[in-house]
Amino acid sequence: EVQLVQSGAEIKKPGESLKISCKGSGYSFASYWIAWVRQVPGKGLEWMGIIYPDDSEARYSPSFQGQVTISADKSISTAYLQWSSLKASDSAMYFCARPDTSGWYPFDYWGQGTLVTVSS
Amino acid sequence: QSVLTQPPSASGTPGQRVTISCSGSSSNIGGNNVNWYHQVPGTAPKLLIYYRDRRPSGVPDRFSGSKSGTSASLGISGLQSEDEGDYYCAAWDDSLNGYVFGTGTKVTVL
């Protein structure tokens, strides 16, 4: 069974750094793209970017390019989403998601979400 | 602001049919497949429709998708209480070089 399990909720202050994770199991982790999707509370879904764990090739939405870093460690079947300096506007639920096929989308499998709260 | 526009809400009584529209442009819906997701608040989205009108295993045939030009629609027939939640269309956008979601439609079963 394909599973994506994300790290737990985080409460951070503005300016702090953060790295959240998404661990895949039940499939060949390196062979499928993993995407990150943001959802601000009460708002819609936003595609942030995607990574291919086998070679760590990453693509970013223009809206998130330079704001976050997407990475992966295939040896431990884990993808990451990282901020170097958080802002209050980064407060949101973040989902990782995986397509069923070798393409970039659509997303058949989703993590449970990681809630990030940034507040002074 | 999303490039795919959906009505903010839709509703129906049990057993009725509800249709949700999704309006885009030639760079997204017009040239690429449309996907639809259902999200119950507090949970992760679930894929309902892909490749415009195909359903993943386990999705009932009450859900159907269609596309015409730069617009797409999701139909829900035989509306049930478990169909409540938010529905999002999505497609690849060649101009933005990214995957875009619609603004979302909240479906209420009266």
Q: How would the global form of chain B be characterised?
A: globular
- Described by its quaternary structure, the protein is heterodimer
Question: How many H/I helices of chain B?
Answer: 0
Low-confidence stretches of chain A: none
Descriptive terms for the model:
heterodimer; A: 120 residues; mainly beta; 7-stranded mixed sheet; 4-stranded antiparallel sheet; 11 strands; 51% strand; B: 110 residues; 6-stranded mixed sheet; 3-stranded antiparallel sheet; 9 strands; globular
Describe this structure in words.
The complex is a heterodimer of chains A (120) and B (110). In chain A, strands 2, 4, 5, 6, 9, 10 and 11 form a seven-stranded mixed sheet that branches. In chain A, strands 1-3-8-7 form a four-stranded antiparallel sheet, with no helix packed on it. Chain A is mainly β and 120 residues long. Chain A has strands at 3-6, 10-12, 18-25, 34-39, 45-52, 57-60, 69-73, 78-83, 92-99, 107-110, 114-118. In chain A, a hairpin with a 4-residue loop joins strand 5 and strand 6. The model of chain A has no long low-confidence stretch (mean pLDDT 97). Chain B is mainly beta. The termini of chain B are far apart. In chain B, strand 5 and strand 6 (71-76) form a beta hairpin. Chains A and B meet through strand 5 and strand 10 of A and strand 3, strand 7 and strand 8 of B.
SSE topology sketch:
The complex is a heterodimer of chains A (120) and B (110).
Chain A: E1 3-6, E2 10-12, E3 18-25, E4 34-39, E5 45-52, E6 57-60, E7 69-73, E8 78-83, E9 92-99, E10 107-110, E11 114-118
Parallel strand pairs in A: 2-11
Antiparallel strand pairs in A: 1-3, 3-8, 4-5, 4-9, 5-6, 7-8, 9-10, 9-11
Chain B: E1 9-12, E2 18-23, E3 34-39, E4 46-49, E5 63-68, E6 71-76, E7 85-93, E8 98-101, E9 105-109
Parallel strand pairs in B: 1-9
Antiparallel strand pairs in B: 2-6, 3-4, 3-7, 5-6, 7-8, 7-9
